[in-house]
Amino acid sequence: MSAVALAAEHVPERHYTHHEGRGPTPHRSNPVVIHRELTTLDLRPHMRVAEYGTGSAYSTELIARLVGPEGQVTSLDIDAYLTRWANIILAERGLENTRCFTADGTAGFRERAPYDRMVAWCTPPLLPKAWTDQVVGGGLIVAPLPIADVPNMTVVAKVRVRNDEPVVEAVFTGGYIEATASPKGDLDLPGRWVDWENRVPGPSWISLAWRAQDDRLHTGARTALDRLLNAAHTEPYEGGDVDVDWPSWRTFAAALGNPQLTMAGLRPDLWAIGHSTTESAAVIQQDGVILADSPDSPSLFALRDWLTAWENADRPAPETYTPTLIPTGNGQSPAGWHLRLSH
Fold it and tell me: Is the pTM of this model over 0.85?
C-alpha cells in the first residue's frame, strides 16, 4: 500500500468536508485525485510544503502526516472563512505542523519559503514565476495549468525546478477551479476568460481565443454567443460518445493552437468547444450535439475537420502530448510560463 493510502486510513475525509461547525465545503476535490496528486508529489518526512487552495483542509492533514511532525505545511486560500475554520479543525485533530493563511496563492507565500514541494488545488492563469522562485533546487510542483487561454482547458502538470528553471516531467488528465482574486460564488461560471455572459432569460457564456481582435463592446463575443444560442443548424456527432472522451477532445482542441478556438456554456453543466469568427460559429457539446449558425457555416466545416483529425489520431490521451513551457515576455504581469502541448 502506498504512503498516501496509508495516511488516508487515518484521516476522516467527511470530518473535513462536512464539519459540524463549519458546514459542508463546496470547494473540495475528489479524494481519488487528491491521492494521485500527492503520490506524484513524492512527499517525504521533514519536507516543507506549500499548498494552494485549502478548501476543506482534508488534503492539508494528509500532507502533514506524510511530512511528519518535523515537516511544515503552509496552506493558502483566498477565502478567509475556509482558512479560519481549517486552522481550527486541524488544531482539533492535534496537528502542530500546519498553518493556513488567507492569501492569493498565485503570488506564493514568501514568508515561509523556501519549499521542497508545492501542490495546487486551483488553476492559475499560468505557471507563476513566484512559485518557481520559492521552490528549492530539485523541488517539485504539481499543479493544474491552462493549455489555452479559454476556460477548462487544463492538465495537471508535474514540474521539476532546477537552476531556477521549470521543466515539465509529465502531464495528467485533470483540472480544478480557477484561482481568483476573491472567493468564487458561482461555480457554474468560469473564473476568468469569459468574454460575454447572459444572465437573462437564462445563464450562458462564451470565451474566445481571439478576444484581442474583438472591440470594446465585445461585439464579436456577443454575436457568437447569440448565434449559438439560436443555432439554425444542429446535428448529432457521428463519431459516437464525446462525453466519456471529453478530456481527450478538449486537450486535442487546445493543442491545435488555432486562434479561432471557442468555448461556451449554453446550458448549466454542459460545456461546448468549437470554432468561431466574426461571421460564423459552431461548437460540439459534451452530449455530442453539434450546433452551428447555418448548415454551410465556415466554422462548422472547420469543426468537422478538427473532429476528423481527433478521430484519426485515435482520440489521444492528455498524457501522450509533449509539453512546452513558454516564458512570458515584454514585462508581462504576472511573470511566469504558459504551458502548451503538441502531439
Answer: yes
